[in-house]
Amino acid sequence: MSAFRSHGLVIAIDGPSGAGKSTLTRLLAQRLGYVHIDTGAMYRTLALAVSRSGVATDDEAAVAAVCRKVEIGFRRDDGCCRVIANGEDVSEAIRTPEISMLTSRISAQRAVREILLALQRELGRDGGVILEGRDIGTVVFPDAEVKFFLSASAEERGQRRFLELREKGSTVTLEETIADVVKRDGQDADRELAPLRKADDAVEIDSTGVSVETVLNRMEQFVRNRAQTG
User: Fold this and answer.
1) CA angle 196, 109, 158 (to 5 degrees)
2) Cα 58 from chain centroid (whole Å)
3) pLDDT, tens digit, 9 for 90 and up, residues 53-82
4) Burial (Cβ within 10 Å: 0-12, 13-18, ≥19) of residue 216
5) pTM of the entire structure?
């Protein structure tokens, strides 16, 4: 595959919950003029639909049936990417701790992953895109021209998530949030299907104690160098 697809590179950004993937992907896409495809939001949207449906989350056939009925889209609103499911803006509803845990469970189901895998590959096939998630560089686009794996300590990731939830009015404690991060890490790493892991050719960046601007500059420079070398 050429380094330059029809419209540019495919950039994969993987890493655990709270590693800064969403923020850095959004900012990097703005700097490069690339399209940001938030695959995590896509899984969260399906998890929300499953939660609202009332089906048993371990009934894979029922879960898949619910997921197939969900139409997912993204809308740019004052520089912010809103997530739309069947015409409803679910951008806030998909970011609760409960949906986070449910997302980890249903994303381990083969049918759910196959539903979104086809859509993600279709959206990114021509390049000029940045996809973030947990298996982009290993499963969704193993031939991506640029791969990053973002990490940070569980304590720092928990702190970031805690502040985010408090700003939204959630009554959570820092200890509970860190515990949820650790639990989510275990679920993602231990699942049988597409577990969280760093691709062999991914550039790993530990953002513990490092500013967003510093990490962003490093990523941007790497991508531009890669584009020049072809």
Assistant:
1) 40
2) 23
3) 999 999 999 999 999 999 988 776 665 678
4) middle
5) 0.75
